[in-house]
Amino acid sequence: MNMKAKRRYCCFLLVFILSFLLTACSRPPGQENGAAVQTESAETAHTQGSDLASSENGISGDSSVPSADQTSVQAAFDTFTDEIFREELEGSGITLHYLLRDPEALGISEENPELGKCSLEELKQVSADIRELSDRLHEFDPALLTADQLFTYRVLDDYLETEKMADGLELYSRPLSTTIGTQAQLPILFAEYAFYDRKDVENYLTLLSQIDSYYKEIAEFEHARADAGLAPCDLVLDQIIRSCKDYMIRPENSFLCETFDSKLDDIEGLSAEEKAEYRERHLTVMKEHFIPAYQMLSQELESLKGRGSNENGLCGYPDGKRYYEYLVASSTGTEYTVPELKEQVQIHMSSDLAEITLLLENYPELSVTSANYSFSQTEPTAILDDLRKQSEKDFPPLSGADYTVKQVPKALESSLSPAFYLTAPLDYWEHNVIYINGGSDQTSADSLYTTLAHEGYPGHLYQTVYANQNIREPLLHLLSCGGYSEGWGTYAEIYSYSFDNGLAPGLGDLLAHNQAATLGLYALLDININYEGWTKERTGKFLEDLYGITDPAVVQEIYYAVADNPANYLQYYTGYMEITQMRETAEETLGSKYDPVQFHKFILDMGGAPFRVIKPYFKTWLLTFGT
Q1: How far apart are CA 352 and CA 358, in angstroms?
Q2: Each residue of 571-607: pLDDT tens digit?
Q3: Which of 210, 306, 316, 385 is within CB 3.0–4.6 Å of 310 for a Cys-Cys bond?
Q4: Among 432, 508, 428, 426, which Cα is nearest to 468's?
Q5: Where would I find the H helices in 228-319?
């Protein structure tokens, strides 16, 4: 395979960036000295391994001395995975910068950074590259690999086989959407693009100056989608256009200029004259590229109005049901088919609702306290400090990481997620950033505690730093499954209700089951709308009959949030459900031997693998636990 072409195999570059770097938790509307692998050479990184090779984690290693043939195959496999990792990142601009502070340490060039490509031809080439990469992977005999390599083999194989499901459906890809689309979140990545030295400033300006040409490609792709009968309906277009207009303000007043200026001050050795020159160049790029990019994209989207006839979910398009099956497999990582997954969601929802009924019957006072409660900590930094301390009881120890909490710019509150964690580089995991959207109900005083548990401790920040410290195969960081990461964040969020957080006795349990049931509802709607074809009217009747929701505006908001982001809400609940199922199995099987720290360590050591890969290792972990 031409490895320069191979660079495209992870599909849309910016789609990958936004899903991996920004854990932008688009939760349901209507709800209130770096890791060793990064500082070592690519050749020595693999010799370190991770804890995966120990039987304690369900992956039994072979302690025998490998034969010459085994040694040769293992060395070739290391070269293969190194090649994928390096070629995927070289020239990829934002992805490379966010993933590695010092790419040169792994032999990766920072020259000629590119923002990304978006065209039908590019995606068709991606599909061809995936097939070729799969063929190359299958040339290796898994029986000759080390335990760690076999794990990487299985994760990569699962990824490639899943991506093959989308072959021929390239136009169903959606680079734009209301809150988690490229147009909404790319500027945040520019705002947090760290300046370690002068080269970073130059690369930032180079990338920012490409935004108009990149958005032109996206606009052309959207026209191609419309020509194929896949244009969004006008209501969704209006929402995307509105998010574009949030950035169409005077460049001098943009938050990007504010963050650019502050980052320049962090670079040692820059004179006042150099800073002034950089600021002038940045303002010019904003005027000549950034603002025109959003103006052009808005105009192109306006021209698509009237061409989108499908006002329902994804299955309303000709191959929508097939594409949804791919999205579910890709985003959740579950082994369940869509009908099987729906059944599991209903079972777990029913269980949570039954627990709520039982709690209210046994403790009727909870119906009053649940309507008016507060957590013991309400200030963001104090909440994170408290969550970090309380996580130490049931989760593996973690040290060395700090964090900064920032507010989403007020002008962007309506178009960004309630909160998101900005993934730290693999070789610079000590410094982390969490954004809070002050305009969201989910960051109000009665929700901020659990929101920060999701984004911070023991959620995304904790899991990411743990992975950066312990998962030594760089490629695994690129292949992390959304269902795993968002499932872990949701699991952490719900787990935090059990902490000593100031809630009245029993109230934490009630709120935890209520939150799980609510997320289950959105997962169920995701399937019903995008796979089974529920209309807005049928969805409204369902919400009215079962939950008493009668406001048409609320029904519309819920319906299009789900329809415009197929499988997005599903990955949160599915991942949470998979982890919870494994915990319940471990508690039942191990009895008094069950140790929450060891269980959570097992999940964390899986390093973002899909649950299809994790499940067999979990069975081994149960059998070998404590031996």
Answers
A1: 10
A2: 999 999 999 999 999 999 999 999 999 999 999 999 9
A3: 316
A4: 426
A5: 234-245, 255-264, 272-285, 291-302
Q: 10 Å Cβ neighbour count for 206?
A: 15
Output phi, psi for 432, to 5 deg. Answer: -135, 150
The SS3 assignment for 386 reads: helix
Bond prior to 318 in cis (omega within 30° of 0): no
SS3 349: helix
Q: List phi, psi (to 5°) of 472.
A: -90, -15
Q: Which helix (H) or strand (E) holds 404?
A: strand 402-407
What is the Cα gyration radius of the chain?
Answer: 24
Whole-number percent of the chain with pLDDT over 70? 89
Is the model's pLDDT at 140 over the cut of 60?
yes
pLDDT at site 21: 55
Residue partners of 121: CB distance under 8 A and separation at least 6: none
CA proximity to 408, closest of 448, 379, 436, 441:
436
Task: Report the share of the chain in percent with pLDDT over 90.
Answer: 77
Q: Which two tokens stand for residue 67?
A: 């034969």
Model confidence at 60, in pLDDT bands (50, 70, 90)?
A: very low
Q: Tell me what the pLDDT averaged over the chain comes to.
A: 88
Q: Which residues contact 351 (CB under 8 A, 6 or more apart)?
A: none
Identify the pLDDT of residue 6: 32
Amino acid at 240: I
Please check whether residue 70 is in contact with residue 64, taking contact to mean a CB–CB distance below 8 angstroms.
no
